[in-house]
Amino acid sequence: MSFDELVSKTPTENYDVKIQKREPSEIQFNGGNDYKLVSEDKSIKKRVLKKDIWAISDGHTLYINGLNYKCQQWYSKVDDEGKYLIFKAAVPNSEAATAGLLGGAIGGAMIAERRYVYLIDAKTGEFSLVKKKNIHEVLSDFPEKLSEYDKEEDPKSVDVIFKYVKTLNN
Q1: Distance between CA atoms of 41 and 20, rounded to whole angstroms?
Q2: Left (φ > 0), alpha (ψ -120 to 50) or beta: where does 131 sit?
Q3: Global pTM value
Q4: Cα separations in angstroms, 136 against 47, 140, 146
Q5: Strand pairing class (62-65; 127-130)
Q6: What was the pLDDT predicted at 75?
Q7: How far is C-alpha 59 from the geometric centre of its chain's CA atoms?
Q8: Average pLDDT of 120-124?
Q9: In the chain, which ranges are E strands?
Q10: From residue 83, how far is each of 6, 60, 110 by CA, in Å?
Q11: CA 60, CA 24: separation in Å to the nearest integer?
């Protein structure tokens, strides 16, 4: 599935797969996002499940493949859909690699369950990681929301950032 297929909601291929929540221990050990695809159909290669499918829906919820956006393998649930697809996913690949190099297995496990807020522009496909350092740019059209954000006790919190980024779809 490509980005165009994702936006138009017209996949060229349909797979008989199940979306499965990954265990915290699996995430700590292997990193990656919170959901994976499993199939009883052995003709569907693991490579397809891990890399080729850009997104998948169970009819209610859309799941984005983080690998296509360099925020690690497996899938993240889209929590808000509109002008932007907004979701929480694993740390960027570059950060994960740095943590692994500097901290070894312990460093990697420590950040494996950390999540960040990401958004994808549903028209252009532009992808952004949203953190405290760039939230002012992201919310520049919402000065009242920025003012509220600046008063938050924990502005680095993923939940706080997510709360304000969701206003982009209102």
Answers
A1: 15
A2: beta
A3: 0.87
A4: 38, 6, 7
A5: unpaired
A6: 96
A7: 19
A8: 91
A9: 18-21, 35-38, 55-57, 62-65, 75-81, 84-90, 115-121, 127-130
A10: 13, 18, 33
A11: 24
